Amino acid sequence: MMNRRVLVKVPASTANLGPGFDTLGMALSLYIWVELSIPADGITTYELHGDGTEGIPTDKTNLIYTVAQQVFEEAGVSVPELHVSMYSEIPLTRGLGSSASAIIAALVAANALIGSPLSEDKLFQMSSELEGHPDNVSASLFGGIVVSAWDGQRAEKVRIEPHADLEVLVAIPDFELSTEKARHALPTQISMKDAVFNVANSSLLVAAFASGSLDLIRFAMRDRMHQPYRAAMVPGMAEILEQATEHGALGVALSGAGPTLLTLVDRKSPRKAELEAFLIDTLKGQGIRAQTMWLEPCVQGPEVTVSADQQAQPFMERIKGEVRA
User: In angstroms, how far is CA 123 from the centroid of its own chain?
Assistant: First the structure.
């Protein structure tokens, strides 16, 4: 174990997909890479790369370190010191599951470092509890589209293979929106009528994904539970939710707690440039700069590489060919 070096690559995720609040998630082709090893000098150290790492703790309060220690404790082993290397291309606090991806990376890497004594289901249970809901973590752990439920004690899920023609276009506004702030915008109660609306649409959306009925996505992605209450936090969002399907999207939603807006697109669509321009121009009209990104549904969960080579080339050199330019 002392010579073992574990590198994991974990996908980002989008959650809710409109009506499936805290229950629907999909893995996306943006990634975090985390490597764990046991330092020869017995001192915990960090090597952090990528945008947004400036404020990340480099002591034992670091999320990767604390989650890894939970794995070791659960497995009954002691690994008090770690060398942690990390690079993330997932924008922080933008609604693309950056914290969930980091949690999954830490759980999977720490488990592999000690010989993988914990089952995948155990990691799923631990991650659901850490996040407080299973939608993002389940997508990052299992890949594809995942329908999940957590009752506070146990999480369950069903994974759906994304349709081969499904592509994703996201518009990432140039500001952060914390999940906590976005949750505070939600009402404590909703009407029976709105609850039924969401249950019906969420059920239909899952059936549409499972059956490959892409034409139903537009109808089924409508939501009355969270998006109307969060619209004021993202100027231009209401217009995008209302009109994106008129510009070539199969469906549109706020990604997670936002502010990223997500559209599902048929990859054969001739209207991709029109849709991208609509997203950028609508946000620009509200004074918001946004970056658009074409992504794929990621069909697999973490990729794990275990090595015993302590003299390997530097961390960034090893992942350089995979990182999004």
Answer: 16
Instruction: Give the CA radius of gyration of the chain.
Output: 20
Q: Look at strands 83-88 and 45-49 and give their pairing.
A: parallel
pLDDT at 206: 98
pLDDT tens by residue, 119-135: 999 999 999 999 999 99
Residue 86 burial by Cβ neighbours in a 10 Å radius (0-12, 13-18, 19+): buried
- Write down all domains in the chain, each with its CATH number in brackets: 5-161+298-319 (3.30.230.10), 166-295 (3.30.70.890)
Q: At 143, is the pLDDT very low, low, confident or very high (cuts 50, 70, 90)?
A: very high
In the predicted model, what is the mean pLDDT of the chain? 93
How many Å separate Cα 43 from the centre of its chain? 31
Q: Determine the number of helices (DSSP H) and then strands (DSSP E) in the chain.
A: 11, 11
The model's pLDDT over 20-60, given as tens digits with 9 standing for 90+, comes to: 999 999 999 999 999 999 998 899 999 999 877 778 899 99
Q: Which two tokens stand for residue 100?
A: 């969930």
Q: Which amino acid is at 271?
A: R
**202 and 224 in contact (C-beta within 8 Å)?**
no
Write a three-state SS string for 221-282.
CCCCCCHHHHHHHCCCHHHHHHHHHHHCCCEEEECCCCCCEEEEEECCCCCHHHHHHHHHHH
Contacting residues for 243 by C-beta, under 8 A, at least 6 apart: 278, 282
Angle at 293 between CA 287 and CA 298, to 5 degrees: 140
Q: Are 2 and 129 in contact (CB under 8 A)?
A: no
The enclosing H or E element of 35 equals strand 24-37
